[in-house]
Amino acid sequence: PAVAAAMRLGAVLSALRPALPLLLGLSLGCSLSLLRASWSHGAAEERCLAPGPPAPPARGAPPEAAEGRPGPGHEDFRPRIVPYYRDPNKPYKKVLRTRYIQTELGFHERLFVAVLTSKATLNTLAVAVNKTVAHHFPRLLYFTGLRSAKVPHGMVLVAHGDERPIWLMYETMNYIHQHFGSDYDWFYIMQDDTYAQAEQVKALVTHLSINQDVYLGRAEEFIGGDEQARYCHGGFGYLLSRSLLLKLHPHLDSCRNEILSVRPDEWLGRCIIDFLGITCVSQLQGQHYHTYELAKNTEPEKEEEEEFQAALAVHPVSEMTLMYRLHKQFSRIQLDRVYQEIQDLQMQIRNLTALTPAGEAGVTWPVGINAPFLPKSRFEVISWDYFTEQHLFSCPDGSPKCELSGASKADVSEIIESAVEQLNRLYQPLLRFSKRQLLNGYRRFDPTRGMEYTLDLLLEAATQKGHSHVLAKRVSLVRPLSKVEIIPMPYVTEATRVQLVLPLTVQDLDFVANFLDMFAMNTLDTHDNALLTLLFIYHPYDAQRVGQVDVFAGVKAMVGELEKRYAEVKIPWISVKTEVPSQVKLMDIVSKKHPVDTLFFLASVWTEINMEFLNRCRMNTISNWQVFFPVHFQEFNPALVYRGEQTASSNTDFLRDGHFDRHSFAEACFYNSDYMTARTKLAADILDRDEVLESMEVFDVFLHYSGLHLFRAVEPGLVQKYTLRSCNPRLSEELYHRCVLSNLEGLASRSHLAMALFEQEQANST
């Protein structure tokens, strides 16, 4: 038995031997943790039970921190619940919120640029500055001492009326503080004989802290002054922070009266030093303000010094042509830097892609550009458009072939030229290519990467020995999507009054009641800032019998009922007699009866007005800038879509059984002043040929006779019930054809039409 027990014990130990280190580690860890817990508990008890006053806090620590609570510096990080209380004795006042969160949070724009100019250089150097770098800065103004200066085109000029240099600087600083001091973080002051690299200046301010008082530029010593004090040379420009400008403004009057100087930059530097104790510096927070002084008869194209290439500002620029040459040279330098950065990034991408599971096969072409879109079904396939050097075989109007012109022709010419240039860069000096003919061209827009091109080129290849040979070569090119930029737009609000204009014919009488009901419910009941004007279009025959039978008597009665229900509302109407209701002629009549600042919404009788769309009409229409032509959603014929079944009424399906009618231009939002300007140009073009107006719509007037942006987009807020429109054959062929297409495409989708034909064939066969 003893031997058996020993054998069993040995078997157990051999089985537990692999787990012995784990068991020993667990037991040792538990023992140490229990021992430490007993020590901590004992120390805590002693601390809590110790008699006498509490121990003083550590040196330099606040009392709250000694007690385990956050100190005064951490109060902002502790959440606080502020109870809402409204005095019942005071009337309720609606809180007005700002339109942009940037305004409410107090954000500022980044950079404001002021250019000091004079009578002698306003039309020369100032114009050169405006044509080279002005459009790269977010906001740039020109300041001069002239009293009544003629402003060159495209420039914003502030005239102070005194040509003394010190007075000009004083008035400029006052003006900047008064009008822009609360809107911008940085202020860059330069002269018109200075060339500044706009992109470098903008990059500089993004690396500087806005909380410091900054006076940055080319530091110069005062003549006979303190060796430590420096002022920023005005010829090379200088940068001021917003905090410094706010502190400097109260002392400008004292500086004007007490400081005597000939140079305005010295005067400003002395003012900043005397009253703020801040001297000019050429480097700050690791950022250097590099400048370059041009010598006489300098040729910018031959300047290869690092100091020149790194310069933010170059001075003095003596003439306009030199300014343009400097801009060309610095643009070339910046472009070479960008190309080198692209090559470096592409090399890094190749090296890193080789380490991925896909290996070198995972490298996309071009390197660094997104891979082409991969469709998941045949409905997502992006089609290619075929073109030649003369024609395009995918036309906007749906025709199979149209002439290549305008932007499309320029695009094709540029892409062919770029293809030949890339081939020569690749094969030179062994071969030299020249284009003979474009055999085939294909292009498509891939939203994930940009515009793709495939070209079949007939080329003539010449060798170094003079031999030539004609060959065909296929090349592929990509015009990638560049950096997305936010286009600056004028500020608009939703408080603008909208003037609805509704033309009515005899064929529209059945739909007027629904239009007026929706207008009353969505605008009059909600007190929306919108008015309505009706335009009764009488046929000559109906106009002669209006004394006996007025075809619009029922509509006028409905308007009278609305005016009785809403006492403060007046709905005027205008009667017009015509056989051809031209949209332009009708708008001419309405335009003359309203002020120039009126915002028109040209509606149709099938439109269901709602507040959501009216707000978008206000926001998308900008006076002297943009007009809005919404594309309404047209519901299909319910007899074909549902075929006796119940119509879908859920809110999620309200845009399901229909389509956006791109053939209709009946709805439009525009300002009366913009229409009158475009209409004046149209009148000068057509002279007295009024029959031309019958072939035009308001959209054509703005498209061909205004320089405004035409914003045309789908509008889900405009939903129209199905109805078969009556197309007037007396209109132009294009307008009549567009109306017929709108009716045909508005019947039903292809699947619904196919099902209807299938059911009809089945019914006929039985």
Q: Could you characterize what this model shows?
A:
There is one protein chain. The protein is α/β, with parallel strands linked by helices and 766 residues long. The protein has 3 domains: 104-329, Spore Coat Polysaccharide Biosynthesis Protein SpsA, Chain A, CATH 3.90.550.50; 385-480, Roll (Nuclear Transport Factor 2, Chain: A), CATH 3.10.450.10; 498-644 and 655-731, Spore Coat Polysaccharide Biosynthesis Protein SpsA, Chain A, CATH 3.90.550. 37% of the residues lie in helices and 20% in strands. It contains 23 helices and 27 strands. It has a 6-stranded mixed β-sheet with strand order 3-2-1-4-9-6. Strands 22-21-20-23-26 form a 5-stranded mixed β-sheet. A 4-stranded antiparallel β-sheet has the order 14-17-18-19. β12, α11 and β13 form a beta-alpha-beta unit. The longest helix is centred in the middle third of the chain and has 34 residues, at 320-353. Mean pLDDT is 84; it is low at 39-75 and 648-653.
TL;DR?
The protein has 766 residues and is α/β, with parallel strands linked by helices.
Topology, pairings included?
Layout lengths: L1 H15 L3 H30 L13 H4 L34 H4 L4 E8 L8 H8 L7 E5 L12 E3 L5 H16 L3 E8 L3 E2 L1 H9 L8 E3 L1 E3 L8 E3 L5 E4 H7 L3 H7 L5 H13 L6 E2 L2 E2 L2 E3 L12 H4 L3 E3 L4 H34 L31 E3 L3 E2 L9 E2 L2 H22 L3 E16 L3 E14 L4 E13 L17 E7 L4 H16 L5 E9 L1 H5 L8 H13 L7 E5 L5 H10 L6 E4 L8 H10 L5 E10 L2 H4 L16 E3 L7 E4 H15 L11 H8 L3 E12 L12 H13 L4 H16 L1
Parallel strand pairs: 1-2, 1-4, 2-3, 12-13, 20-21, 20-23, 21-22, 24-27
Antiparallel strand pairs: 4-9, 5-13, 6-9, 7-8, 10-11, 14-17, 15-16, 17-18, 18-19, 23-26, 24-25
Helix pairs in contact: 5-12, 6-10, 14-16, 20-21
